[in-house]
Records
---
Amino acid sequence: MNYLAKSDNKIFEIPTIKIRPNKTQPRKIFDEEQLRDLANSISENGILQPLTVRKVSQSEYEIIAGERRLRASVMAGYSKVPCIIVKCNDRESAMLALIENLQRCDLGIFEEARGISRLIRRYGITQEQAAKKLGKSQSTIANKLRLLNLTYDEQDWIIQAGLSERHARALLRIYDVELRREALSKIIAYNLNVTQSEEMIEKLLFDSSAPEPEKPKKGAQRILIRDVRIFINTINKAVSTMKQAGIDAVCKHKDSGEYIEYTVRIPKTQTERSA
């Protein structure tokens, strides 16, 4: 990417009517009150940070960074805004716009997740590469992408209720859609915080009746149990029993999104004494 200006960071005054939004902008909701506050600040102090744009024709520019500033400037009555012009192609412009917005902390949780998903799919990069570009860990990227497993209705309820990303991630423990909606309804109705939500979800998961195992075919020996929560509960009870017996067993679990990994560590000296 190169600056069109002869000197680096040269600023141009460009008419707002000649600037168009970037189609890859992940932000779809612009809070009107926040825009008015920004417009008032711009009226009082001016535009402190220039927009970044690229030239797409003789009379048109596309925003790479600064759509909120553009909207607020128009609200404040500005007909021109200060811009830095960069030279880049469609692919570079789209990627830069996505990355610039994803690096901001005021995107909605699902806007951010969809933006990351779009970045990965559109440009054929891995989660690890996306994490490096965005300055985040790969596990953070994976957790954010998992939020898209919630239905659009659930996402909308979460946004409207002002729930956090941790609320949304807690709900992902429930795979059954009807049960998950029941949990979400309770969280909203009773205004539960994250800890209360996690406790309620835990109770829902273990209180809900497990599906009936499939009847094995004649001569089959395998027992079919589809609900892994039964096995997880068994692991937890086994570790608890060992602790009650004086064995310093430690159980750790990790949810990677695709699978749940359990590690049980038992001191070898204690196992030898027990033997």
---
Amino acid sequence: MKEIPYLPQAFSQVLREVRAEAGISQNELAARIGCARSFISFMETGVNLPGMNSLVILADALGIPADKLVRRVCERLRCLELLQIKK
């Protein structure tokens, strides 16, 4: 299966934004979902992407429906792709 260009960047940007909007630190988010803070950090720097299970748990911990989180990532992905096409 082919990889989606810019997906790690899009997800990391949206995760940081949604977490900031919720007023939650990386430590607090990690505690809410029962993981190490480094797991959150790796996702926010684009090193790792969450699986479906983690995505749903993250969205719930952030107080946002999972489909809305995915929609924001898709919108950001389109923006990043357009920026690359214009270069």
